[in-house]
Amino acid sequence: MNQKLKYISRIKDEFDTVISGVNGVFMRGDNVIDEAVDALIKLYQNGKKIMLASNSGMRVKDLYYVLKHKNVPMNIFYAMITAGEIAHFYLKNNHIGETYYNLTGNTSNVASGLDYKQADSVVMADFILAETESAGVDFNLTIPLLEQALHLRLPLLCVGNNTSLITENGVVESVGAVAEKYAMMGGQVIPFGKPDVRIAAYLAESTAGFIAKRCIVIGDGMATDMRMGNNFGTQTLFLTEGIHQLDSNIDQRLNDLSESYGLNVDYYMEKFIW
């Protein structure tokens, strides 16, 4: 359909529930987009149940803390899930070794509180962690580490499948690109996060009377947000100023993008505003 909207208020009667991303919707890197938060507040005031599905490497409690301390009103959210929370649950219930090497930071959100040790080098690890962070990842620095991991046949846990992120400084590469590279090299990748429809199913189960056709998925990622929405049978709202940067000839470029991914986009907006 690819129907253009200027204001989300124009279609507020078309849905009862919202599954929203975080970065690219009402956050840009570490910065809050005030007009987008205002739109979410207005939706809440109009009786919509708003649920967050984030590919962040944070646990839910940590994302809650971060958003609250950025003055995002957390009472407007009915439920939350993160890629980090899903990966944490996986590691808690599946034994894949004793030690890990973290490709994307000094400490791990995912392994925190679990009985795993962080290795100082790839050769001392049983598996690799790549967790989505708001600043992205230096892709080139990971290549030698991936080569070591491949030689040792280590699995790579990709926590959040975004290949890129929108930040206050523009679009940067993210852990999904690292995972894609590792898979192309022949490595084993265990992914967590959108577009896995089990995320939408988990949120739907927490909502009494949930009807997929009366739900809208909002995000800036074709491969993650829009694919999850399409696969789960919801409406979709694509934000063109996110990671795909459709800032000119938007109609044609969005048609081409939708076709290349084999996806349907119901609505699109340049900015998420009420």
Structure summary:
With 274 residues, the protein is an alpha/beta fold. 32% of the residues lie in helices and 23% in strands.
Topology, number of strands: 16
Mean pLDDT, to the nearest integer, reads 94
The fraction of residues assigned to DSSP E strands is 15-25%
Please state how the strands of the largest beta sheet are arranged side by side.
1-16-15-14-2-5-6
State Rg.
18 Å
Structural class: alpha/beta
Low-pLDDT segments: none
The CATH superfamily title of the largest domain: HAD superfamily/HAD-like
Name the overall outline: globular
Q: Give the helices and strands as they follow along the chain.
A: EEEEHEHEHEEEHEEEHEHEHEHE
At CATH level 2, the architecture of the largest domain is 3-Layer(aba) Sandwich
- By DSSP (H or I, 4+ residues per run), the number of helices equals 8
How many domains comprise the coordinates? 2
Quote the CATH topology of the largest domain: Rossmann fold
Q: Please write the CATH class name of the largest domain.
A: Alpha Beta
Taking the alpha carbons of the first and last residues, their distance comes to 21 Å
* Largest beta-sheet details: 7 strands, parallel
- Measured as a percent range, the helix fraction is 25-40%
